[in-house]
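Fold it.
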Amino acid sequence: MDFSEIYKHVKPIKKQDIFFRLYYTKKSIEYSMEEKDGDYITITAEQFAIANPLVTVKDGKIHKNTQLNIGKLVLHNKGQGTAKDDITIIKHNSDTKWEFKTYED
């Protein structure tokens, strides 16, 4: 059997498109090339390679977090309890509770 006979029996490989995805929720992000359940945006190969963990997705676009939009601790009726005069001392039964609030919340 010569090459031309072999070539007749070869089936072409179907080209598959490669997708780079950034899956996101309000609290987390995940870079993936797999198809999963959940909200995602398609990103570039460069964005996928960098895989910056300090980004959020808003209105279908990536936004890099800066010190201005990361957030702060605020008094709240639920959250981590602390001593009244020192938030570095954890007290689980305390009425003084803190929650981390981002500026987008």
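Residues 18-64 form one domain.
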